[in-house]
What we know:
Elements lengths: L1 H28 L16 E4 L4 E3 L8 E6 L4 H17 L3 E6 L3 H11 L5 E4 L15 E5 L5 E6 L5 H13 L1
Helix pairs in contact: 2-4
Amino acid sequence: MNVFRRTWxxxxxxxxxxxxxxxxxxxxxxxxxxxxxxxxxxxAFQLVxxxxxxxxxxxxxxxxxxxxxxxxxxxxxxNELPLLNEAYKLSGVQMxxxxxxxxxxxxxxxxxxxxxxxxxxxxxxxKLKSSYKIIGLPxxxxxxxxxxxxxxxxxxxxxxxxIMGQMNRIKEG
Length: 173
């Protein structure tokens, strides 16, 4: 009887894991308008930056922008942000790094430690989670000058040539 119960519990756990994986895949791949997916207009947002000023996506209309969602506790973010900082300095492409789920003090400490030069916006209540389909960090969204999402990259960017290629893609629109 004990073996039967253990087997049954294992099947239930596997079923729940499979359901979660399917849900995550469908939520990223769904072609719902109003979310940050390639070919769609990037959802508008209004956040506060580290200086306490309001930042809106519309501030970058006509320029194109790379938006990177990150957190200081995220190891891939820690690896990626210094590379993005160097690419930002070299490329001339607009960039906005959105700290997700943390307060200004945690973000500021990280920015100072890594001497980040691009603008940092704060999303402590994770308001953009649904519209930008944030299911993990880091997440990078390339937005064309006309406001259309060009590409989304889930996970760590590790190669400077790839990052520069993405920034050039923004320039090309």
